[in-house]
Amino acid sequence: MFRGFQRAIDNDMWQARVDSIKPLLEEARIDSGKSEIDAEVVIKVWDKIAPIMASQFDAPYSVPPIAPRPLLLNGADDPRCPVLGLQEPASKAVEAYAEASSADRFKNCSDPS
């Protein structure tokens, strides 16, 4: 599953992901002295779990190098990985697959309509 961690932070769309690991985020919230979990707490936890997860390991950077191997992005309405978060990685993948002369090996089926 490809996730846009930085996009989730930038667009205030991290709540569903936080809910899946809430006890960890609650501890981080307490440690930071905050009254509620916010983007700053989320960033600190993600940086602890996997530094550079929201940069070099994020979907816009990790999807394109898969070219020229076959890749299918598939999804619909997932609160932890919204379709809008796949737009940038899919766009970069299209470019990477075209550059690798293998455009036929990439397919994006993430349109919810």
From TrEMBL:
It comes from the Eukaryota. InterPro entries: AB_hydrolase_fold (IPR029058). This is AB hydrolase-1 domain-containing protein. The lineage of its organism: Eukaryota, Viridiplantae, Streptophyta, Embryophyta, Tracheophyta.
